[in-house]
Amino acid sequence: MFEQINRKKESLDTLRPLPKYTLKSLREKLLLEWTYNTNAIEGNTLTMNETKVVLEGITVGGKTMREHLEVINHRDAIAYVEDIVQKGEQLTEWQIKNLHRLVLKGIDDDYTGVYRDQQVFIAGAKHTPPAPYLIKEQMEQLMKWYDIEAQKLHPVERGAMLHAIFVGIHPFIDGNGRTSRLLLNLELMKAGFPAVVIKVENRLAYYEALDKSHTTKDYRDFIQLIAKEVEDSLNLYLSAIS
């Protein structure tokens, strides 16, 4: 599954370091598309262009404060991901909570970085997240799996499974989807891959693959979906410098 991805990643590695301004414009493009799409998946109504102006510090009329905060918060969360990557830090539960604090800052401060104390359900999904009293244990199991088993996996598979398992636990009241996509890209970026964008137009296939992984523990469809997005991002980088 990963042979083509590995070849393209090797091609990209031979071209590093990338030209400074090319790298800057690619980062800005991905930051905008990632922020727009991840929020749109969750129901934010800002368009791509509106998201761009909010990132530039301009308020968009007729849109809620929450929609504006989701954009600003996500930008700050990406900066935190980049900082972890730069420092080469190992992923911890504390970092996951910090990421979530940034995602939900000013939106629901009572629940930022705090595991939920209520049962939740995922609209349209067959899978029901665990009861609140099971979250701490399941998150500990996730981190144990990450520290040992996950390290033997290809970075794309590791990132996809971290995303899927985390969002299946649904440890927070709100913001789980955004946090899970940040975790996916954290893993990819640590391994030298460009960030990927789960596009809002692929939302149905994305949700179906996630639900299948939760109900059957068969992650193949979801890993394949992520692998396609990884290839798209690699193609974008390679086309910019070839």
Automatic annotation (TrEMBL):
Residue numbers annotated as active site: 170
List, for all copies, the residue spans of the domain called Fido.
Answer: 91-228
**Coiled-coil stretches:** none
Q: Which GO terms describe its biological process?
A: cell division
- PROSITE patterns per record: FIDO (PS51459)
- UniProt binding sites for ATP: 174-181, 206-207
- The record places the site described as Important for autoinhibition of adenylyltransferase activity at 42
Q: Which UniProt keywords apply?
A: ATP-binding, Cell cycle, Cell division, Nucleotide-binding
InterPro entries, per this entry?
Fido, Fido-like_dom_sf, Fido_containing
Cell division recorded as keyword: yes
Q: Name one Pfam family in it.
A: Fic
What one GO molecular function would you report for this record?
Answer: ATP binding
Superkingdom of source: Bacteria
Write down what this protein is called.
Answer: Cell division protein Fic
